[in-house]
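Researcher: Re-running this chain for the archive, since the previous output was lost when a drive failed. Same request as before.
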Amino acid sequence: MRRLGLSSLLFIAALGAGEGWLDSQISRPYRGHRPEKVFVDIPRGTSRFGVAHILRRNDVIRSPLAFEIFSLWHYRKPLQAGEYYFDRPVDSREVFWQIAQGKIFVHTVTVPEGWTSFDIAAELDHQGICSREGFLSAVNDPSLILDLAPDAKNLEGFLFPSTYQFSRHTTCEQIAKRMVQDFRAEWESLNPAGSQTFPGGLTVLQVVTLASLVERETPKPTERPMVAGVFYNRLRTGFPLQCDPTVQYAWELMGHHVKNVRPADLHVDSPYNTYQHPGLPPGPIANPGEASLRAALTPAQTDYLFFVANDQGGHFFAKTLSEHNRNVVRYRHLLESDAQAADPEPARTKHRGPS
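Model: Regenerated structure tokens:
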């Protein structure tokens, strides 16, 4: 009996020591000798033992045995494959739950409505996901969209604006493909019957091109059908579209970023210059969102032929050139009033006369 009692005490002591050791191994944050940020790739099909040794090899955990024991306690929670990011020392429990919950590392990329492929390429390059040159090379291959738009020369206009998540290993081609897939899904929701008959007799490429002009001309979703209606009226009457964003895009293609179009910029020699060339440009000048695509498919029925910006982020619309010219004067007066309201001192000084 004494021998049995002693054995029980030794077992309890050993169990306590084991629990103490296990707790010391999994409860304290650890980073070994690596102060830098660590990426760890867990291949598909890796066992718990294999995961533990990958983590130890990357100095993320203190003891592979302790991690494996803790993992076996939670055997119903499978460890998920993927790339994981550890930017600070963490304890083994936190490491386990991050992998068990599949919190893999991803880059989040938000593509706003109206961004060009050049804008997207710059953002991807900035985040270190894909080089600018690599993405633009992928965009210049229109094969992903030729069944829908056989005349497309590239993927501009078909890279749908949205928020995306990509791993570090996603290729430029895969990124472009994902954006085109989202465009297709949106296009199918807007054109569920798969119609090939569009307003003005336009093709799919031309509808997307017109939508890109609408996108760049107005930030107001409620105005977009009206802007689209103006463009359709101009196309029908043969009146040049005279769309400043097409001039900006023409310069962009030549490697020059033009923020505000000046009169001298209107002379750029490019088929995208809608001041010099009637009709639509040869392709989209940006990537339109849902509201602009919808506006291009269902434009407002209107007699307007002109519009000019107001000081509220929208536009004044006009049916005749004389009415449009009055709106232009009105807009300039509003700009002057806004400038005086923002800085009244120069306005008071201006009316004092010579001193």
